[in-house]
Structures are given as C-alpha cells and as structure tokens.
Design a protein that fits this description.
The complex is a heterodimer of chains A (248) and B (318). Chain A is globular, with a radius of gyration of 26 Å. Chain A is 40% helix and 11% strand. Chain A contains eleven helices and five strands; from the N terminus they run H-H-H-H-H-E-E-H-E-E-E-H-H-H-H-H. By secondary structure, chain B is an alpha+beta fold. Chain B is built from twelve helices and eleven strands. Chain B has helices at 12-21, 34-39, 75-80, 82-87, 89-96, 101-106, 109-113, 120-123, 165-171, 269-272, 279-286, 299-317; strands spanning 5-8, 25-28, 47-50, 59-61, 67-70, 175-179, 185-189, 212-218, 225-231, 242-248, 254-259. The chains are: A alpha+beta (248), B alpha+beta (318).
Chain lengths: 248, 318
C-alpha cells in the first residue's frame, strides 16, 4: 500500500477511450499524440508497433517526474557558454553546457574517443591528457575552465602510421591486455619522463637536493595514478624503461 | 551535476564579493575535489567563481626570511620549489605522499587546505551524515570506521581531515592569508583554520562566506631534520591511516603533527615538550582524550610506533 492508501498492484485505470487513441496513432502517430494517449491509457503493444522500432524504443524511456522541469524549462536551466581552445594542434570553438567536463568534451563533442572514461572520479587515470604540456585527469576538470588552453590527447601524441616511441614500446612489450587504460597509461608514461627530467621530486626520491633519476622505482611511483585492471604493470614498466634508456 | 552558472574572476576582491552576494556560489580553482563531489551531488553549487586567472600563483620570499605561497600554486610546483625542498622539506615530502601525479599537477594550495573528508558515509548520499545533511545523524560511529577519527571528534561526526599538505603546514606554523568580501585581508594561524566538528560538523573552517584564501605564509626556516611518514593500505596513491609530520632538532627536541586521526591536522604543543622522553610519552599527551571505535583503535599504537621510528631515524640522520 502506498502512503496515500492506493494499492501497489491495482491495474492502471483507463481515463479515456484507448481504442480511439490507438486508432489515431495508427493513422498518424506523432510524439505528442503518442505521449498524450499512452500516459492516459498505458502503453500498448499495438501502439509500439504503430510507431516502428526506433520511435518505440524512444518512448520506452522512463517517464519524467511531474516536478522535474520539462523540455522548455530544461532549456532555460541549461547554462551554456562559448569555448575556444586548441586540441591536438587544431583550433576548436563551440558552445557547451557549463557542466561538461574536459573528458566529455573530447569524447562526446569532438569525438576523440581515444581518451577513456574509467571511474569519472580521478581515481583510475584512464582519462589522462595533456593541458598546456602538463598531464591532468580530464574527468575532474570543467571544459569551460580551459578557454584558450592547448590540449593534447593520445590522438595528438602519435598515429597508427607514426607512433610515438612510447606507443611503439607499449606494443613491443605487450604493455596492455584489454587496452582500455592504455591511452591514459601512455600519456602518463610520456609525462612521467618529462617530470623526472624537469627535476620534480616524488615520494620515493631519497635526496630532495639531487636531480631525480629515470630509475624503475621513480617511474613506478609516478605511474600510481593509472590503474590497470588487467595487471599489465610489469610490461608497462618495461616499455617505459626502454624509452627512458633510449632518450635519456 | 546540477546546473550552475560560471564566471571567471578578475580580482580577489571581486571573487570574494561574487561568492558572498550569490547564495549557493562557490570558488573553483583546480576542481579536483569539488567536481568529484558535484558529480555525486554532495556539493550542488548554483554558481561557480573560477579564480584561476587571479595573480596568486607565485612563491615569493618574505622580508623576514620566510616564504609566501600563492593560493593557486599547484601541489607539484610547491613540492618542487628549491627553497621548499631545502628548507621546508617536510612540506615537499607531505605533498609528494598524497594523491597522484595528475592530481598534484592540478590541485592548488588553497584547494588542498579546503579538501573535504573521505568518510564513506559522507560520500554515500543514501546514508545519514551530519556533515553532508546537518541533523540526519552519523552513520559512521556505529558503522565502518576503520579510516576515521580517534581524537577531536564528537557525537555528531568522526570524519577525518584527509590531506597531507596541511599536516606539514601545521608543524611549520604556517599562516593563512585571506581576502574578505569587504575587500580587507585577514591572517589566520593554520591552527585556527580548521574547526573541530562539535555539533556543527558541516562547518569545517573558520572562513566566512565568500572569504577567499589568497596565500599561505611560512615563517623563516627552523632547520632540523624534516620527516613525513605516511602509513597507508598501499605504497602509493592512498589516504593516510595515520601520518607523522616532524621537524626534529639535533638536541632531541622537535615538533610533530599527526594526520589521519582527527578532523584537523593534530598537533599538541604540550606533547612536544615530552620529545626527549620518547615516543610513548609524546603519544600519551598527543592522544589524551582519544575516543576510538573498535575498528580504528589500532591507530593509537600505530601513532606511537610510527613516531618512535621517526624519532629514531632523525637521531640517526643528525
């Protein structure tokens, strides 16, 4: 029993002539008439067939709550802004909702799906990209905060025809299994070598007054923000070691 | 995320006034903690004031030999600064013990001070939490409390302050400088920055609405051996079960602050007077009045033993 005394199990009470409604839809179904009639009479199989598979699927989405703002109100709530930035060397300008993260901008708006969404909370590193030459988690950054910034994703780092040395080393050393975390791993791996060379210390740097080295332990510690569920860590470390030895 | 409007502030005074004059507005800088919480609708600001363009990204020497750190200086930049590495190494060590490379590249000094708790019940919007929803109760006290506070907590809340950087700032006697919405500056000793929960665990700092952190100042260096020892469930990229920030002097005296055990970086100056009598005496004063749960009582001996190791290592180095 609901708190208003109604029964969970009672069938919906028809409030209009559903046969007339079904007839109207068969002859000329529109989204508007469909919603009006199915809300009144409940969704029928005949009604779904009348619409064809795609439209029918669209109508099967969960109904919106009455107190959630509907279409026109939603547009009013949506706060959009103009954004211009560089992505992989190309100037991009577009209008976006303030809530769009840099990750969703890259994947959903610019269709650069190399950058992956893993946890979406800054815990896994799958979304790692470069912003003004520095690696960050693109899931924890709003796109509107990147006006004028220079973004580089895995697509900008190398291409199948012209692999970045780190990409080639990951292939050679089998630095992945399913591959989902790999773009983030490779972006981080490239950044880690830059960060060591720039003299940025880490948790395992013994002497803070000395320049950190491209050692295995330094590289492993600095990769701890990139999680690999397949456990390809030792191969990733080997790929990094090869690139580190070659370009040092 | 709930819809919000967004502006980029052009001065500290404008930023402070914008947040003070817009109910439900918040500052955003690095965003690494705020966006996480916004996605979970634990934070639901209606307006964001982005402070990234403010000229608060510099580290400068002060006239009395100290260091002023701009609020927007990233964790990476701060930990890498030559004077921090040489003269305030406990701060460099603490920062590098926290988060990941990607997060430290984005996280700012002020944002890190304002980092909110990682209590699992604060994060779970299906559970009661006096910090998230004042008056709903605390699910942690009788719940899973292994990570949570053993001292400084209250009947309303046993959440910990989760960060590392602030624990080092506490041992270094840092001062936080702010800009109030009126446009006037204010200085807050780090000891008075974070509040204990009492009956109002949702109020975590002594900042007024719209008050913007502009810098953190370190007094002139005090020498000594600087140590930050963090004990956690894995070797990297995990929050502290407990952490010890210490600056030990060759004569066996020293300062110590503990992270991961309280709602704020935990330092008891009176306990430091016991330093030459050893870790047990210090820990006893430091943890006086502790009220652990069954799950987190292990933190009390862990503080003492970690402190013993820190004191022994410092003596070995000196």
């Amino acid at each position: 029993m609901y708190r208003d005394g109604s029964d969970y199990f009672a069938p919906p009470v028809p409030q209009s002539n559903t046969e007339d409604g079904a007839e109207a839809m068969r002859s000329n179904p529109t989204r508007r008439t469909f919603i009006a009639q199915t809300v009144a009479g409940g969704l029928t199989l005949a009604a779904l067939e009348a619409l064809g598979p795609e439209a029918a699927l669209a109508q099967l989405r969960p109904p919106l709550d009455a107190d959630v703002p509907q279409t026109d109100d939603l547009a009013a709530l949506e706060q959009t802004m103009q954004l211009s930035l560089m992505v992989n060397g190309e100037a991009r300008a577009l209008e976006i909702d303030t809530r769009v993260t840099l990750l969703d901008l890259l994947r959903e708006r610019l269709h650069l799906t190399g950058t992956k969404k893993g946890c979406d909370h800054g815990q896994c590193g799958a979304c790692t990209v470069f912003v003004n030459d520095t690696r960050i988690n693109s899931c924890l950054s709003l796109a509107v905060m990147h006006e004028g910034d220079d973004i580089m994703t895995i697509e900008g780092l190398g291409s199948p025809e012209q692999l970045h040395p780190m990409q080639a080393a990951f292939i050679k050393h089998d630095g992945f299994q399913c591959g989902y975390c790999t773009p983030g791993q490779i972006c981080s791996a490239v950044a880690v070598l830059h960060e060591i060379d720039a003299g940025i210390p880490s948790h395992v740097t013994v002497d803070l007054s000395a320049k950190p080295q491209r050692s295995a332990i330094e590289m492993r510690e600095r990769m701890s923000g990139n999680i690999c569920r397949c456990g390809a860590y030792s191969n990733i470390a080997e790929a990094m070691a090869e690139v580190a030895a070659r370009s040092a | 995320m709930k819809p919000f409007s967004y502006q980029r502030a052009t001065s500290s005074a404008d930023a402070a006034a914008a947040v003070a004059n817009t109910p439900g507005a918040k500052f955003i800088a690095g965003g690494t903690n705020l966006l996480d919480l916004m996605k979970l609708q634990i934070e639901t600001p209606v307006h964001l004031v982005d402070v990234q363009d403010l000229p608060l990204d510099r580290i400068e020497d002060t006239a009395d030999g100290g260091l002023r750190i701009g609020a927007l200086v990233t964790n990476t930049t701060l930990a890498s600064h030559p004077r921090v590495r040489r003269e305030y190494a406990v701060l460099s060590r603490a920062i590098m013990a926290g988060a990941s490379g990607q997060l430290r590249n984005k996280a700012t000094t002020a944002g890190n001070l304002l980092q909110r708790t990682r209590c699992p019940y604060f994060y779970d919007t299906a559970m009661p939490c006096n910090k998230r929803m004042p008056g709903t109760g605390c699910a942690a006290i009788a719940g899973y409390s292994r990570q949570l506070a053993v001292v400084g907590s209250s009947e309303a809340c046993i959440a910990t302050y989760p960060g590392d950087m602030a624990v080092a700032l506490r041992v270094l006697d840092a001062t936080v400088e702010t800009m109030r919405p009126s446009g006037s500056a204010r200085l807050l000793p780090i000891a008075d920055f974070h509040r204990l929960p009492g009956t109002t665990p949702h109020i975590e700092t002594n900042l007024a609405v719209g008050e913007l952190v502009t810098s953190v100042t370190l007094p002139k260096p005090i020498g000594g051996t600087h140590v930050y020892h963090k004990v956690r469930d894995r070797a990297s990229y995990a929050f502290a079960l407990i952490s010890v920030a210490a600056v030990m002097q060759p004569d066996g005296t020293g300062r110590v602050a503990i992270g991961g055990i309280a709602p704020k970086p935990w330092r008891v100056e009176a306990a430091e007077r016991e330093m030459r009598r050893g870790s047990k005496a210090v820990a006893q004063r430091l943890l006086a009045g502790a009220r652990p749960t069954k799950d987190n009582a292990f933190k009390l001996p862990l503080v003492e033993r970690t402190l013993a190791g820190v004191i022994a290592d410092a003596a070995g180095d000196a």
